[in-house]
Structure formats: C-alpha cells, structure tokens
Specification:
Rossmann fold; 6-stranded mixed beta sheet; alpha/beta; 4-stranded antiparallel beta sheet; binds inosinic acid; single chain; binds magnesium ion
C-alpha cells in the first residue's frame, strides 16, 4: 500500500519494511558484538517498540532476558510533556547491564524519565537502543548508544508507531500528509 488513512489523517509510505529490516540487522550485529558475554537485560518500552523488539530479539544470538515496561506520554500528535508509569519492572536489576529498547526518541523526555527511573534501581550500566530518533526535536541531554535511523521532524505511523492508538500494525512506515 502506498497510502493509508488512519483516523482523520492521510499518510503516505516513506520507509519500506525491507529497509527497516536492514537497519535492524545492523543494530543486532553491533549488540551481538558488544554484549555477547555480558548477560544484558533488555527492557522494551511498550507499546511502540513491540515490533522492533520482536525483530531485534530474533537476531540476538546469545542467551538473554527481556522485560516489557509501559509509560505513557503521548496524546494524539503532540507530547503532553508528562510521563505516567503503567506497567513497571519485575525483579532486581542492581548490578545488571541494561539495554533499553524504544521505537522512537522524539523530545527525549520519555527516555530521560526511563533512564532516571532505572538509575534509581542501581544497574551497572544503562544503554539506549532506539529504532528512530528525531535529532532536531531532542530537548534533553541524552546519550543514544544505538540509533537505527535518524529521521526528520515529521509524524509517522507503522512498525509499532501509532496515531491515537491506530496504525501500529503496518510493516512499513508512513508519514503524515500535511
Ligand atoms: P518523547 O518523550 O517526546 O521522546 O516521545 C517519545 C514517544 O512519543 C515515543 O515512544 C512514541 O511513542 C511517541 N512518538 C514520537 N514521535 C512519534 C511519531 O512520529 N509517531 C508516533 N509516535 C511518536
Ligand atoms: Mg513509545
């Protein structure tokens, strides 16, 4: 499909799944190289990162643990600037090497909150792995260790990303038509 309609907006295809998968493979290769003997704990941020997490984890070639947490910060197309914890972490992560998996870092507020919440639990290291980043929009000081794709400041859906809860199911990425 070249064009989709999600709720009240039109979107046009911008990144095909084939290209997405090449970037997932690159990230997996780097993580396999960097963490093979380190027993990292992957922490995936729901809902947006479920597709990226599934694709990436299938390419991780060492035994590891993955957990899912959920924060909410978005309403419609604008960030509310506030984050709420919906599902938390299970178990002790002190002394662990943590790799956060996220779909997209936009302003970075959600990720900053996540990092601060995790730091309080005394992990040994925290690494950030995000599929997309919108560098023009970053408002906080964040070290993004693994970024699959930097994209311009346009609103996108697909590959786990939503517009008001819809559009996560598409394998390709679609950009809103202004
Ligand atoms: P931040 O706190 O502004 O960095 O927002 C991060 C969250 O906003 C991401 O985890 C996404 O859920 C959501 N988000 C940011 N940009 C987009 C977009 O273009 N499409 C869909 N969701 C987005
Ligand atoms: Mg998200």
């Amino acid at each position: 499909m070249e064009k989709i309609h999600v709720k009240d907006k039109d979107f046009t295809i911008s990144i095909r799944n084939e290209e997405i998968m090449k970037h997932v493979e690159e990230i997996a290769k780097r993580i396999n190289h960097d963490f093979a003997d380190k027993d990292p704990l992957f922490i995936s941020l729901l809902n947006g990162s479920f597709m990226f997490t599934a694709d990436l984890m299938k390419l991780i070639n060492f035994s590891c643990e993955v957990q899912f947490v959920k924060y909410a910060s978005y309403e419609g197309m604008n960030t509310t600037g506030e984050v709420k914890e919906m599902i938390g972490l299970k178990g002790d992560i002190s002394g662990r090497i943590v790799i956060i998996l996220e779909d997209i870092v936009d302003t970075g507020i959600t990720m900053k909150h996540m990092v601060e919440t995790l730091k309080a639990k005394n992990p040994k290291e925290i690494h950030i792995c995000t599929f997309f980043a919108k560098p023009e929009n970053l408002q906080v000081d964040l070290d993004l260790d693994y970024v699959a794709m930097n994209i311009p400041n346009d609103f996108i859906v697909g590959y786990g990303l939503d517009y008001d809860g819809y559009g996560r199911n598409y394998a390709d990425i679609y950009t809103v038509v202004k």
